[in-house]
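Hi P.,

Sorry for the delay on this. The queue was packed all week, but I finally got your sequence through. Input first:
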Amino acid sequence: MTQTIGLVLAGGQSSRMGQDKARLLWQNIPLFQHMQNLLYESGIDKVLLSGDQFGSRALVDKIPGRGPLGGVHAAIDTLPDGVNLLVVPVDMPLLPPEACWKLVLSAAELGRAVIFETFSLPLILPVDSQLRSAVNSALSSQDHQDYSLGRLFDRLQGVAVPLPAPMAAHFQNTNTPDEWHRALKAMSGEKLEK
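Then the structure:
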């Protein structure tokens, strides 16, 4: 099976959270480390971290101001063709490792970029000349919408696969303090208020 490398996107500004969400504690470890561990639990052997606030242990965007696309660009610049890149956001702590593994298997079978239906992340990108060309083209665009990973996925003619229904509840981003507290409650097994 094709080797898969993980990438945790942790370089955002966290403006809605009011503090660096990558450093919030989740089960007594920083959220970025939790997401790295989650990828290792998914069977990924190597995990990269994107975000200039982490210094030398992380990838820094070579072209700033391009959002998650800048992180993907920095990652594929370090990788050879022929591997798959599994991209996850730093702010999805309830993501089940088995969902990531399902994407890995789908990408191996399809040989294409893969996401789950209705979710733009996590995302698997086959690293090849087509991906490099699409990323470089998007980075040079003046249209900010071209920086979205959803648009990159469309350019690559990726495939959206079904997500098992029980997993969908775990695909929660934690962009705000309220969303963060809801995720903490869900992790502890508390019933969430509607």
